[in-house]
Description:
The protein has one domain (2-100). 76% of the residues lie in helices and 0% in strands. The chain is built from seven helices and no strands.
Amino acid sequence: xxxxxxxxxxxxxxxxxxxxxxxxxxxxxxxxxxxxxxxxxxxxxxxxxxxxxxxxxxxxxxxxxxxxxxxxxxxxxxxxxxxxxxxxxxxxxxxxxxxxxx
Length: 102
């Protein structure tokens, strides 16, 4: 129980591996996907943008649990959004998905 009270990044990165960490990485990944996906509704895309660019308590907690630096994530996402360049990983997936469905 006392482990949950400590919420330093050292505690999270040292002991939180496995499915829990992957879950929070997936939350961040889904938000990034929603920002750049054309099939996502406008309001959902805007909520994802807000989530990834505002340094809220929830965002910091999810980044911490995912083992990511919130400042770095915000800085990178703002740059990608400004340049309007999707994350390369998603571009590759989209390409293969479209090829498979044609």
